[in-house]
Every structure is written in structure tokens, then in C-alpha cells.
Amino acid sequence: NAGVTQTPKFQVLKTGQSMTLQCAQDMNHEYMSWYRQDPGMGLRLIHYSVGAGITDQGEVPNGYNVSRSTTEDFPLRLLSAAPSQTSVYFCASRTSSGNTIYFGEGSWLTVV
Amino acid sequence: RKEVEQDPGPFNVPEGATVAFNCTYSNSASQSFFWYRQDCRKEPKLLMSVYSSGNEDGRFTAQLNRASQYISLLIRDSKLSDSATYLCVVPREGGYQKVTFGIGTKLQVIP
After folding, report:
1. Which of A41, A58, A103 is closest, CB to CB, to B44?
2. CA–CA gap between residue A32 and residue B76 (Å, rounded)
3. Under 8 Å between Cβ of A78 and A58
């Protein structure tokens, strides 16, 4: 029952450092997404993918890159971390026709 | 009007009470709506879908009011375990590929 697995769960970065949040799903879902959740704001879409080799920007893509080389994996890269990227990040997946979005357990990122 | 608006609460209710939350949306073309539940420091999980005819699942009832563009979630006989944040989710662009999440309404059920 792995579902959506994201790592690391907690990370502290210094301003300017880069890192990759890993996300994998074992449900053979076509759609995968990355969201960030900040106090007082709803989940905001960073990037999404509708299948291997296809990615697109969401509402808040600046400072982040993604790739989708396989159906299972959808890593999120922070290019040069900034304090404004301090947030909780959720990876999510669903089928192309399904209504249920499955989320990973979240990654708490602090940029100092 | 914002795409999705929710009262953040918190709603503090005693055990056994009935509580209702509303969520207003701006896109009149939206067809599908959802309520997700998010426990503290956990990921959101689908609670229920909202259909034109309404949807009931045990103590939970979801309703859609298209004329006034809001959806509602009613919880009867509240349990301590119902304490969570309830997120309203509305698809964009006529489909579910992108969705808008509300900020959530926090419910605290008190013994």
C-alpha cells in the first residue's frame, strides 16, 4: 500500500542551495502534480505532468523545475533556494479519468 | 469573487453537535466539486464528492447550490475524530486536470 511516496520529510536549506524533492507512485497514475501549502493559502499548484515526458507549469512555478522520465517518478528541483520557498510540499497523483487525488505525506522545507 | 472561498474558522463545536460549512466558487461552469479532509500535519484525503443531487455518506452530507454558487458540508453527531481541516476543491477549465483548493475550514470538536 505504498501509494505516493515523497522524500525527504523534513529538510533545512541555506539560501542559494539547491535540492530535489523525490516523489514516486506505484499506482500507474498518468497525472502527477506538486503543490505547496502555506498558512492562510490553499494548496497551490507548482508543476504538473499528464504523462511521462510531459510537464507543464502551474500557478507558482518560478524557482522550481520538474521532469517526468517515467510514469512512476516526478522529482521537484529547487534551483536556488530562497526563504520564500519555506513551505510544505505535497506530491500528488491520480488517473486521467479519476476524481480522487492521492497525496504523499508531505515534505516540510525550511530555507534559512 | 475569489475562485474558491471558505471561512477558515475555527469552528469549535461540542461532541454530538451538527455543524455545517460552506464554500463559494466563482466559476459557474464547474461541474464537479469535492471535499477533502486534512488532519494536522498530514496530507489531504478525499472525503466525498459533491453531486448535483447531493451526496450523503453516514453522518456527512454534501450539497451543491448552483444558483448561489456554493457547496456545503454538513456533519451530524460530531465526533472528536472529526476534528480536522476541511478543504473545498473546485476543478478549473471545465475539467479536473487543474483544481483550485480552498484554504480550508478548521473544525475542532470539543468533549
Report:
1. A103
2. 34
3. no
pLDDT above 90: residue A18 = yes
Q: Which residues of B touch A103 (CB under 8 A)?
A: 43-45
| Integer angstrom CA distances of residue B37 from A2, A57, B45 | 20, 26, 5
Contact A19, A107 (CB under 8 A): no
Q: Is A22 exposed, middle or buried (0-12, 13-18, 19+ CB in 10 A)?
A: middle
Q: Which residues contact A5 (CB under 8 A, 6 or more apart)?
A: A22, A23, A24, A25, A26, A104
Residue among A47, A15, A18 nearest A32 (CA):
A47
Q: Look at the block and give the residue holding cell 465526533.
A: B79
Express each pLDDT in A20-72 by its tens digit. Answer: 999 999 999 999 999 999 998 889 999 999 999 999 999 999 999 999 999 99
Give the per-residue pLDDT at B96.
52
Question: Which stretches of chain B are assigned E, i.e. beta strand?
Answer: 4-6, 11-14, 19-25, 33-38, 44-50, 55-57, 60-65, 70-75, 84-91, 99-101, 105-110
Amino acid at the residue A66: V
Are residues B103 and A103, on separate chains, in Cβ contact within 8 Å? no
